[in-house]
């Protein structure tokens, strides 16, 4: 976008202005009537000066950045769950052996170990 206020604007600039007005309305800086009036003016604007006039009494836009995600805490929690599951697998296999009488349930232990090793270090691993 050009700095000169006389420069004609296009649809993209109008949509950006409407989105910004919506953010200000959502933040409670504009009443419904003010939002409607300014939105109508933004939709009809043809120059940069007409859009700039809509924001003179509003604070500058701040980008909506989400709070940083603590990946290390999530990774540690995921690792605790994986370790707990690996500790329970032999007990589950033993219980299923006594319930069903089939020794094949003990194959669950190495299968779980393989899955544990294969997904260790992946971001979304169980």
Automatic annotation (TrEMBL):
<dbReference type="Pfam" id="PF08044">
    <property type="entry name" value="DUF1707"/>
</dbReference>
<keyword id="KW-1133">Transmembrane helix</keyword>
<dbReference type="InterPro" id="IPR012551">
    <property type="entry name" value="DUF1707_SHOCT-like"/>
</dbReference>
<feature type="transmembrane region" description="Helical">
    <location>
        <begin position="84"/>
        <end position="106"/>
    </location>
</feature>
<protein>
    <submittedName>
        <fullName>DUF1707 domain-containing protein</fullName>
    </submittedName>
</protein>
<feature type="region of interest" description="Disordered">
    <location>
        <begin position="56"/>
        <end position="76"/>
    </location>
</feature>
<keyword id="KW-0812">Transmembrane</keyword>
<feature type="domain" description="DUF1707">
    <location>
        <begin position="7"/>
        <end position="59"/>
    </location>
</feature>
<keyword id="KW-0472">Membrane</keyword>
